[in-house]
């Protein structure tokens, strides 16, 4: 198949690489001239494990252009542009609208237009209506809603081994499912076929549920703490029940990234637009937003004169195996510590602090971050932090306190090295 992908971000590039891998010819379109230049020079502008290797392997099937008109010549067009949050929590559909405006005059042969960007319920119907209003004859296109469920850091494997393929179609569309099945022929997963809006809802409900699971375990962690119970035991205990499941029950600083915070906000606004008070969605966000305060308070209680201390923070990215700092709880924690006057020495294997903050420096090694540190905070659960030599860590630091804000360290090993351990919801 000949496929154009519009938007060369995480979703677009991963989709492009995987579709090339399963045998298609893919053209990536992005308005960012610098990004396309990089891609044409063989450089992948984001860090995603395995992505550059897969793109290199399939380079003969991949092209990159800034020309949307060139993209419009392809029979299958996948829209992967960003849909960020507006200040009020609604979704900013500016990029998507601009793509539809630019595509419309160039549809002269049949197109299957597939939306992968996360969009509020009703958006794909809007795409259909807009193209009709712009004079595109209905027999020349089909609109398909095909949300993605890939996670940064494991995007390629998530797409190649998808647990499902969600396909939203218009009622009268009896040919796009075959297009989708041909496109995903190399990927074996059950199909969920529903309406355009049904597919949009599946994506939002999925992200909101996972975010809710995280906030749930974080709330349970607060209660566990008060009773000196280990929340990890509780998560394990409840996770064996197949109705609950073991995933997304890792207590920590809360969820971040480019999807959960924005999608929960957006679904809240969607509900409100229909006069529905989304109580669980509100609670999910309130727990998430206040999770950092709980651990800041804990530091205040444990560390004498916290604002005058030097804090080493390991982790800046919103989660391991990514350089992404969007809505990163680690970065929010650093900002809060900086606001109260602490001196911060932050380190991350891939991510860079997204803005300058008073008294915050980023170091290039873990050991540099630990120099003179009174307190150590693990803010992102990178595997390499679990492997640290705790004897050496103790020698480097001024103090002995370690806040494991992701519950990812071996407490016993730290304590054997003479460090004082605080976790999340572990008493
Ligand atoms: C998420 C969804 O998982 C994915 O299906 C969707 O397509 C995009 O959004 P992603 O944002 O890449 O993917 O990250 P994910 O691994 O889901 O983690 C999101 C956040 O939740 C991270 O900040 C992570 O640290 C946090 N998290 C996750 C927890 O705090 N506890 C958990 O148990 C799991």
Automatic annotation (TrEMBL):
Q: Does the keyword Transmembrane apply?
A: no
Keywords, alphabetical: NAD, Oxidoreductase
GO terms (molecular function) for this protein are: NAD binding; UDP-glucose 6-dehydrogenase activity
Q: Where does NAD(+) bind?
A: 30, 35, 83, 118, 152, 262, 326
Name one process (GO BP) from the record: polysaccharide biosynthetic process
Instruction: Identify the EC number(s).
Output: 1.1.1.22
Q: Where is the active site?
A: 259 (nucleophile)
Where's the UDP-glucose/GDP-mannose dehydrogenase C-terminal domain?
312-411
Q: Where does substrate bind?
A: 149-152, 203, 248-252, 256, 319
Q: Which InterPro entries match?
A: 6-PGluconate_DH-like_C_sf, NAD(P)-bd_dom_sf, UDP-Glc/GDP-Man, UDP-Glc/GDP-Man_DH_C, UDP-Glc/GDP-Man_DH_C_sf, UDP-Glc/GDP-Man_DH_dimer, UDP-Glc/GDP-Man_DH_N, UDPglc_DH_bac
- Catalytic activity, reaction form: UDP-alpha-D-glucose + 2 NAD(+) + H2O = UDP-alpha-D-glucuronate + 2 NADH + 3 H(+)
A matching Pfam family:
UDPG_MGDP_dh
Task: Give the highest taxon in the source lineage.
Answer: Bacteria
Top EC category: oxidoreductase
Task: Tell me the pathway.
Answer: Nucleotide-sugar biosynthesis; UDP-alpha-D-glucuronate biosynthesis; UDP-alpha-D-glucuronate from UDP-alpha-D-glucose: step 1/1
Q: Which family does it belong to?
A: Belongs to the UDP-glucose/GDP-mannose dehydrogenase family.
Quote the protein name from its UniProt record: UDP-glucose 6-dehydrogenase
| Highest classification ranks of the organism | Bacteria, Bacillati, Bacillota, Bacilli, Bacillales
């Amino acid at each position: 198949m000949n496929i154009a992908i519009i938007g060369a971000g995480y979703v677009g590039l991963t989709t492009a690489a995987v579709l090339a891998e399963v045998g298609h010819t893919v053209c990536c379109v992005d308005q960012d001239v610098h990004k396309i230049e990089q891609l044409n020079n063989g450089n992948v502008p984001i860090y995603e494990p395995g992505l550059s290797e897969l793109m290199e392997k399939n380079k003969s099937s991949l092209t990159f252009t800034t020309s949307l008109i060139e993209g419009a010549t392809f029979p299958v067009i996948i829209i992967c542009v960003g849909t960020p949050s507006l200040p009020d929590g609604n979704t900013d559909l500016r990029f998507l609208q601009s793509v539809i405006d630019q595509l419309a005059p160039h549809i002269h042969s049949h197109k299957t237009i597939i939306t992968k960007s996360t969009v509020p319920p009703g958006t794909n119907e809007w795409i259909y209506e807009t193209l009709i209003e712009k004079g595109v004859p209905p027999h020349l296109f089909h609109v398909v809603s095909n949300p993605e469920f890939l996670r940064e850091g494991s995007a390629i494997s998530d797409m190649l081994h998808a647990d499902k393929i969600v396909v939203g179609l218009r009622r009268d569309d009896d040919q796009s499912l075959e297009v989708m099945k041909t496109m995903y022929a190399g990927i074996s997963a059950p199909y969920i076929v529903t309406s355009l809006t049904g597919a949009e809802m599946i994506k939002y409900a999925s992200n909101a549920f996972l975010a809710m699971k995280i906030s749930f375990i974080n709330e349970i962690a607060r209660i566990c703490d008060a009773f000196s119970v280990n929340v990890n035991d509780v998560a394990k205990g409840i996770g064996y029940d197949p109705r609950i499941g073991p995933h997304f029950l890792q207590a920590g600083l809360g969820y971040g990234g480019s999807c959960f915070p924005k999608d929960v906000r957006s679904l809240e606004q969607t509900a409100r637009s229909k006069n529905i008070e989304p109580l669980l969605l509100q609670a999910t966000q309130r727990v998430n937003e206040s999770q950092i305060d709980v651990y800041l308070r804990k530091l205040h209680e444990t560390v004498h004169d916290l604002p005058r201390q030097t804090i080493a923070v390991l982790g800046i990215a919103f989660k391991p195996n990514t350089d992404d700092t969007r809505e990163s709880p680690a970065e929010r924690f650093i900002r809060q510590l900086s606001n109260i006057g602490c001196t911060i020495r932050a380190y991350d294997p891939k991510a860079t602090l997204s803005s300058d903050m008073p008294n915050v420096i980023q170091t290039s090694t873990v050991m540099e971050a630990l120099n003179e540190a009174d307190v150590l905070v693990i803010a992102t659960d990178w595997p390499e932090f679990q492997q640290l030599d705790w004897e050496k860590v103790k020698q480097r630091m001024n103090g002995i306190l370690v806040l494991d804000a992701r519950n990812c360290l071996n407490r016993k090993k730290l304590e054997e090295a003479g460090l004082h351990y605080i976790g999340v919801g572990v008493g």
